[in-house]
Amino acid sequence: MTTPDPELSALLHESRQFDPPAELAAHANAQPDVYQRAKEDRLGFWADQARRLTWDREWDDVLQWELPYAKWFVGGTLNAAVNCVDRHVDAGNGDRVAFHWVGEPEDDTRAITYRQLKDDVCRAANALTDLGVRAGDRVAIYMPMIPETVVAMLACARLGAPHTVVFAGYSADALKTRIIDCDAHVVITADGSWRKGSINPLKPAVDEAVSECPDVRSVLVVRRTEQDVDWTDGRDVWWHDVVDSASPEHVAEMFDAEHPLYVMYTSGTTGKPKGVLHTTGGYLTHVSATCRLIFDMKPETDVFWTAADIGWVTGHSYIVYGPLANGVTSVMYEGAPDAGGKDRWWKIIEDYKVTILYTAPTTIRTFMKWGEEYPRAHDLSSLRILGSVGEPINPEAWIWYRKNIGGNKTAVVDTWWQTENGGVLITPLPGITRTKPGAAMQPFPGISADVVNNEGRAVANGEAGFVVITEPWPGMLRGIWGDDERYKKTYWSKFEGVYFAGDGAKKDEDGDFWLLGRVDDVMNVSGHRISTTEVESALVSHPSVAEAAVVGASDAVTGQGIVAFVSIKAGVDEEGDAGAALVDDLRATVARQIGKIARPRQILLTPELPKTRSGKIMRRLLLDVAEHRELGDVTTLADSSVVSAIADQMEAST
Ligand code: WTA
């Protein structure tokens, strides 16, 4: 366990503050009494939020809490898909656009109304039923950012079949591990996805993964990129063959509030990813309430855009379930930020009059690097709220975002949360909070969070410590799929009775939260969680590698960058071209086992790794090397010349 990064703590010197925009404050969904109301009656507050959904049967108890297991809205029944789609059609809003979908190739767009979405979800639910999918069965989804992905997720939800969406940038190997871990028997995919004008094939990865998953009986394939694909008769079916022809009538079954909705895999501190389990009633309540109060969603007028991938939790909660539960119109964009030009996003905002934009600091910093002229060339005046998520946002990026994208007039909300949380936990409210650039500010109403020291005691304002959540919340994970021990150990054993997030934070003199990054072996690269152990085990699986140590070095654009120190087995040639070829091969090995996102930014081949006398690799010193800092304390090392040699090598290589 490392203490929070002192450089990030320096953020606390930021002293600028921004009042909520007056116009927004006057009409905001969240008025200042919301905090008081939630404080006086936390469960009553959440029950009010839950009542904004449509229940078939209301709950008997709001919460049953037997540490560390929570049940929310006990005895209530509902259907998530009905809440996201049918009820808006039933309320007369079927003609409202649910998604303005923007494909990567220009002019490849679709507007999908709530009515069309309902028909498509029902068709897909019928088709999945014909493929044998029943309530409780897991379905794996490995898809591009296309409307069918949303349809597939909602069809699963409608049937009570928990989906597990695997980010399409993950490798066949990673997909296979996840399919096996949650024992999915059906996989939904596409032939490929578009990435900057070229095809990123998906079906071959599924073929490879499924060849080692004997229990997968059906692969449902959407045609998107239209290249030839291999076909296994009896197993593979085209979406357009079975979904398009299915009936748009489907009577939804109602499920218990605690019925599993999805499993989302995320990296932990060991090599094996964790299947984070979310259930129906509490999760939907949490994402729906946060959309309404943080993003101030007004379904009649807003156009919301979460620019993230559906393969991550941000996409689940803020592209699919949260916005749809509110019946708002969203934009969904398929491609890279610079596909068709570095102003592609700004063109989309202008074309669709986007009012709320939600994205990650790493993307904002990329835009900063590209320059202000790209947003300046477009009319972005429709925007009223800008959101940030995924990693700490540095004040410079916050200010740049507000000025160049928000025209110095929008609210900016820095929202802190995790896959395990389901929805946002710490955030400003745009019509209430006087924001500070770089601070996530305060727990959302109905959320109890604190910062504690190593003994679990609350720290004084101004001191750094660990983020804990002190009361259960509706969107919290209900467990790790198939690994109860790990659930208890990871989140509930560090401190008695509270949820341990694994993040460092500081509360300032006003008690506002500043998040300081992870305190464990999880890296955050462009807002993606990647464990050092996972990358290390991929590297050591290479026949030439003896040992590997991986650190997340701070990076001006991606937040952290992966730097690997690799020692090679005796007799392996690591000089000149042979060394360069080996490094390429190592990067390819990581891409194959995890995915391209986990490829190290830099790999240093070294004769030895620095170790303590008891043989433990000193990653802290390697981080100093990777960040070009003076080396910290080397007295516990068995041989301090090892690390100085590595430092010299690093300086020579950069
Ligand atoms: C980090 C993404 C600072 C944090 C929703 C957390 C943040 C991890 C913020 C979860 C933020 C997310 N400020 N750090 N606003 N938002 N993080 O599971 O370290 O992909 O633990 O969920 O991202 O990443 P995950």
Task: Please write out the topology.
Elements: H1 6-9, H2 22-27, H3 33-40, H4 42-50, E1 61-66, E2 69-74, E3 77-78, H5 80-93, E4 97-102, E5 109-113, H6 114-130, E6 139-142, H7 147-159, E7 163-165, H8 172-182, E8 186-190, E9 192-195, E10 198-201, H9 203-210, E11 218-222, E12 236-238, H10 239-242, E13 255-256, E14 260-266, E15 274-279, H11 281-294, E16 303-306, H12 313-326, E17 329-333, H13 344-352, E18 356-359, H14 361-370, H15 373-376, E19 385-388, H16 395-405, E20 411-414, E21 426-427, E22 442-443, E23 449-452, E24 464-469, E25 479-480, H17 484-492, E26 499-507, E27 513-518, E28 522-525, E29 528-531, H18 532-540, E30 545-555, E31 559-568, H19 576-593, E32 602-606, H20 619-626, H21 640-653
Parallel strand pairs: 4-17, 6-7, 6-8, 8-11, 11-12, 16-17, 16-18, 18-19, 19-20, 31-32
Antiparallel strand pairs: 1-2, 3-13, 4-5, 9-10, 14-15, 15-25, 21-22, 23-24, 24-26, 26-27, 28-29, 30-31
Helix pairs in contact: 3-4, 5-6, 5-7, 5-12, 6-7, 8-9, 11-12, 14-16, 20-21
The structure holds 5'-O-[(S)-ethoxy(hydroxy)phosphoryl]adenosine (WTA).
Residues 266, 312-314, 389-392, 414-419, 440, 501-503, 515, 517-518, 524, 529 line the site of 5'-O-[(S)-ethoxy(hydroxy)phosphoryl]adenosine (WTA).
GO molecular function, one term: ATP binding
Domain AMP-binding enzyme C-terminal: 534-616
Domain AMP-dependent synthetase/ligase: 91-481
